[in-house]
């Protein structure tokens, strides 16, 4: 069975930039998974520090209103990996999942770490490059011309173990046609 992971689609991230296209793409993929009766699992980054935008009780750390009602399950995490010291593996095992699709935020941290951790745990992994977004840019990394999503997608693709698609390729290979 397949499952969709929506990583860190939280107010503090989504309100920090224009992620309209990413949210729309993620929502289309969610609706496809829902239409096939496949689970949609949201992962929420939380922190116990009251000064953090990810403070567990802060509105900024809540799942974004446009997507949160789609969640079949919510996993709470405190590190970039959605697997480290969380219930995600148990949830996936109970659901009989052997293939995870990665979407969400931030591409180069939580999405990439989760994709690698999923592969290390024996899951087939599909990373949907343009259904991820990041608050960072070429200036953050002092690398002029850096396209973070493309860089991460290329690195994961080169691994020969993680399938990397854009949304159009997802539609061609996985989406239910009406």
From TrEMBL:
Domain Isochorismatase-like: 3-142
Family annotation (Pfam families): Isochorismatase
Keyword terms, alphabetized: Hydrolase
InterPro entries: Isochorismatase-like_dom, Isochorismatase-like_hydrls, Isochorismatase-like_sf
GO molecular function, one term: hydrolase activity
Family stated for the protein in its record: Belongs to the isochorismatase family.
PANTHER family in the cross-refs: ISOCHORISMATASE-LIKE DOMAIN-CONTAINING PROTEIN, PEROXYUREIDOACRYLATE/UREIDOACRYLATE AMIDOHYDROLASE-RELATED
Record's protein name: Isochorismatase family protein
């Amino acid at each position: 069975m397949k499952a969709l992971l929506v990583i860190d689609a939280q107010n503090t991230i989504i309100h920090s930039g224009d992620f309209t296209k990413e949210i729309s793409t993620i929502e289309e993929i969610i609706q496809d998974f829902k239409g096939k009766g496949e689970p949609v699992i949201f992962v929420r980054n939380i922190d116990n520090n009251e000064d953090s935008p990810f403070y567990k009780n802060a509105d900024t750390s809540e799942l974004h209103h446009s997507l949160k009602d789609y969640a079949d399950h919510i996993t709470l995490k405190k590190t970039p990996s959605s697997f480290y010291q969380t219930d995600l593996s148990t949830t996936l095992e109970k659901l009989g999942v052997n293939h995870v699709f990665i979407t969400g935020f931030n591409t180069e941290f939580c999405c990439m770490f989760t994709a690698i951790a999923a592969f290390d745990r024996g899951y087939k992994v599909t990373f949907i490059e343009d259904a991820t977004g990041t608050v960072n840019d070429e200036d953050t990394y002092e690398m002029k011309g850096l396209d973070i999503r493309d860089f991460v997608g290329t690195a994961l693709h080169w691994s020969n173990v993680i399938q990397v698609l854009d949304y159009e390729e997802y539609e061609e290979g996985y989406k239910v046609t009406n």
